[in-house]
Amino acid sequence: MIRERLPFEMNPKENFFEKLNEWIGDVFYDILPEAGLELRDEQIFMAFQVERAFKEKNIMFAEAGVGTGKTIVYLLYALCYARYTGKPAIIACADETLIEQLVKDEGDIAKLSKILDLNIDVRLAKSQDQYLCLKKLENVMVASEDENIDGVYDTLPDFVHDRSGMQSFYHYGDRKEYPNLTDDQWSKINWDTFQDCFSCDQRHRCGLTLSREHYRKSTDLIICSHDFYMEHVWTYDARKREGQLPLLPESSAVVFDEGHLLEFAAQKALTYRVQEDTLENLLTRLLENDVREEFAFKIERALKQYSAFFDTLFESSVEVSGSDRKEVKLTKELQTVAQDLLDLLEEIGNDLVFESETYTIDEYALRIVDEYLDQIDYSLRLFMKDDQAIYWVEELHGELTLVIMPQAVKDILKDQVFSQKKPFLFTSATLSDNETFDYLAYSLGISDYLSFTIASPFDYDEQMKINVKKVSSEDSFQQKLQDSMKEVEKTGGRALFLFTNKEELARFKASVKDYGQYEFLFEGDQEISKLVARFQREEETILCAVHLWEGLDIPGPALSNVIIWSLPFPPNDPVFQAKRNQVADPFLDADLPYMLLRLKQGVGRLIRSHEDNGFITIYVDENIEDELLTTVKKNLPTAAQG
């Protein structure tokens, strides 16, 4: 593995940070402006502030307004520090969409490579659910006649089918390679948490496995999502115990772009999932062995009890409007059924010790079952301690999954992440709350940190027109539909519609079929980065999404209009209900801060350069309280009409 040299000359007697400081000055004052990039005072200020995080190996909250150019700043520092230490730096983005934004052909990494004549070794470490599962694909091929999924099978590399040795393998199977699949089609064939990858006979030809071998060899930058980084943290010890490499290699520094979202990613990664058919599959596999008759009867009893638990769970769960999560009522009956299941599984776990001594069951199969039983035991006990966990039910393709999430992760983050002596850089336009970073720091278990705030350089009064429009409570949808179609006429399409949930998006999609004047692109119809690229390339299109409130960066006329369908308050699902239960005033301390943060992020999609201009429309209910409306307007970057 050949490492590239530092982009500046330095002899062994010279101080790295002094030479880095000189080079950074040359880059921002001379090299970038000569290449046609704008000289930004805000960007230069940020660059010399960020140096402290790397020099002191400390945590820094870098709140930089839209247009500061923060990405170029952290890329330069991360790259140089990686080459100085000999370990790659990790850039963790909020989600997979933002990863693609960072590495697109016209993105900041490509610009720096060209302008500075650097060969940057940057590799993507995507979340596991972004990869194809060969086993699931085989099963769907048998049960389905979907031509799009058949097409996936036809594009598999030859080495997947050819078992001869001495072949050249390469990574494949990324969600991006199948852009025409809908999200629903992809969910039938992608990796999920219930796949037994370690014992899979396709493991060494699996695109997910091969991708890990690829990105682990990066010498400069590894780009992943917050979710994936946190999964790496939580699975680190378990993977080492199982003889596997951690998901990510040892790093020199970590940058959390859109860092205000890290807490939820940490909670999400630490969730425990109990699926309806997983235990049945594992225990049925044990029955195929020569086990004692008494043990076989216990397994059959446990399977019946497991089925009864999920039946009771289904009866105890209720739909939540605007959310995919079903709320669970922890009734006395559900607790009793869960406890009976725990008792049976404990007996089976004890019996596994005896069965292992008879050598009638494969040792690896025993270990997998034993670990899963431990996980179910821990999950159900956490579930029944109502004050220590957040839980809900998900339903996909007719199967239930119980999801249990710890309420607080700050202690785990403090011990397993931020106790490391290395640079951790948080960046976003919205990190502080009432001009302090204490709330974010507390939620992440951080006690000692550096920080700074720098405003956006854009002239929002001149570049942006915001209209807050009241709509009737009785017929709000039709009013919004008709008015929004008039609004997009101002810009000839070129609009981004932001919705707060999938139900809103689906209803809008069904209602605009007759509006043939514009082509609408809907999140979920294709792979998201393809939709974004089409929106940017085909300027008169309209992009409609639920998950693009943050990170979408499209300068120029392609995005000249943002329609915010409703104020983005959090859903009434179990995760946010738990947050409400932890504060004195649920609305003021939980719902309102979330909404204002998301609203500011959504509004920030419009102006991405000094040349940009356009319109923002925000729809609110006609009965909105005056105080709330005033608060909304105060948090907008320029005075709003209406």
UniProtKB/TrEMBL annotation:
<dbReference type="GO" id="GO:0003676">
    <property type="term" value="F:nucleic acid binding"/>
</dbReference>
<dbReference type="InterPro" id="IPR014013">
    <property type="entry name" value="Helic_SF1/SF2_ATP-bd_DinG/Rad3"/>
</dbReference>
<dbReference type="InterPro" id="IPR045028">
    <property type="entry name" value="DinG/Rad3-like"/>
</dbReference>
<dbReference type="GO" id="GO:0003678">
    <property type="term" value="F:DNA helicase activity"/>
</dbReference>
<keyword id="KW-0067">ATP-binding</keyword>
<dbReference type="InterPro" id="IPR006555">
    <property type="entry name" value="ATP-dep_Helicase_C"/>
</dbReference>
<feature type="domain" description="Helicase ATP-binding">
    <location>
        <begin position="29"/>
        <end position="303"/>
    </location>
</feature>
<keyword id="KW-0347">Helicase</keyword>
<dbReference type="Pfam" id="PF13307">
    <property type="entry name" value="Helicase_C_2"/>
</dbReference>
<dbReference type="GO" id="GO:0016818">
    <property type="term" value="F:hydrolase activity, acting on acid anhydrides, in phosphorus-containing anhydrides"/>
</dbReference>
<dbReference type="GO" id="GO:0006139">
    <property type="term" value="P:nucleobase-containing compound metabolic process"/>
</dbReference>
<protein>
    <submittedName>
        <fullName>ATP-dependent helicase</fullName>
    </submittedName>
</protein>
<keyword id="KW-0547">Nucleotide-binding</keyword>
<dbReference type="InterPro" id="IPR027417">
    <property type="entry name" value="P-loop_NTPase"/>
</dbReference>
<dbReference type="GO" id="GO:0005524">
    <property type="term" value="F:ATP binding"/>
</dbReference>
<keyword id="KW-0378">Hydrolase</keyword>
<comment type="similarity">
    <text>Belongs to the helicase family. DinG subfamily.</text>
</comment>
